[in-house]
Amino acid sequence: MSQTAADAPVITGDRPGSFPRSVLAERHPALIGQVRAAFPYGPAQHRALDALLRECAEGVIEPPGPAAHDLDRWREWGLDEHTGRSWYEVPFLWAESFFYRRLLEAVGYFGPGPWQGVDPFRPFKLAELRTDETAAELAAPDRLAPLPAEERGRALLHGSLWGNRADLGFRLDAGNGGAADGPGHPGAPLVADDSAALWSLLPAGGPGTVHLIADNAGRELLADLLLIDHLLRHRHAGHVVLYVKPYPYYVSDATTADVVDALRRLREAGGAAGAAGERLWEAMGHGLLDVRTHPFFCAPLPYADLPGDLREEFGRATVTVVKGDLNYRRLVGDRHWSATTPFTGRTAYFPGPVAALRTLKSDVAVGLGARTEAALTAEHGHRWRTGGTHALIQVRS
Ligand SMILES: O=P(O)(O)OC[C@@]1(O)O[C@H](CO)[C@@H](O)[C@@H]1O
User: Which residues form the Damage-control phosphatase ARMT1-like metal-binding domain (predicted)?
Assistant: First the structure.
């Protein structure tokens, strides 16, 4: 069934027991606690964190101070309209984005001062680069090495897709600890799989430009970088642009510093992963791999509101690959769509071919077959949408 925005309600946290409500009421306070415990913050930062905690628990949305560096930008993004309202009643996407903005402000990230630029999530991201799971993933390219390039490409695409499950915000929920034991794992059937269409946009030897809008640092980014190396090495793309966040966001979203950490981790891994790390390091030096960012990547807005400069950039890409759940919400619109609403219709506005690679971790889903949706709901209830156990690849050529 096709649907327009007018009949698909915007997702908010107003319903007790709903997924967004649990994020706002439980995940955010837990995150404040984790960040506080990870740094020797001073009294002013503790007071600001206490205030944010109170505000999340019982209060209404407060604006940033009048001297905030980005006040005008947030005004354009709906601040005046949402100030003074409950966190639960404003659009979920807006509330989450603004929460991360406020958390960074509370710990002094935006400065001026000695804590300016100190990423409050960095200890968690660095720890992830040192886990056994990460080490196992970095050994995988050695096992893939004897396979034909096409098969390796498919495996690396799936690695990048399922890498999206390694999102640190998602793992804050106690109930999500078991996601790894659910039906989802690399190789499990996808709820939608347009990967053939994706590969047909990227024939080997083609001079294409791939734009990849990154999601999480750590394991997901390592897998993305291995895929990018494959695309460049086998000439599926002559140029790759990797878009990252301009500041820490949704706990583990990748920034430029995280790309550097990931490239260092790849290089020290040795073997096939290490060789990929060396090639990527050089590719950056030669401008074959560009890392870019833009304030819009931390905006509480859908991609339908892309600013003109990004619209032009994406319009020039052979394909833009959009990673992860949050980017998916922004790509199709953070609304209660019917799951059978066509993906092609929802992304028709996008200025060029676009591919979504995402594990399902929120209420939003479009582009599924009616039978697929019915089977998923019969087997898992609502949980297939939010549990991170299912994944999709959707393409609009
Ligand atoms: O974009 P990602 O990393 O795949 O997922 C981000 C995410 O965990 O954060 C939101 C809740 O905070 C959810 O909508 C979504 O599942």
Answer: 24-370
Count of domains forming the chain: 2
How far apart are the C-alpha atoms of 44 and 84, rounded to whole Å?
Answer: 24
Strand runs (DSSP E) across the chain, as ranges?
192-193, 209-213, 239-244, 289-293, 319-323, 354-359, 391-396
Atom index in ligand 1 nearest the CA of residue 253 equals 3
Complex ipTM tops 0.90: yes
- Same domain, residue pair 309 and 160: yes
Chain segment 164-193, per-residue pLDDT in tens: 987 777 665 534 433 443 455 666 789 999
Q: Are residues 154 and 212 in the same domain?
A: yes
Atom of ligand 1 nearest to the CA of 96: 12
Radius of gyration, CA atoms only, the chain:
20
Task: Report the C-alpha gap between 356 and 319 in whole angstroms.
Answer: 10
Short-list 35, 323, 325, 34, CA closest to 179: 325
What residue numbers bound the domain in which 302 lies? 125-396
As a whole number, the mean pLDDT across the chain is: 94
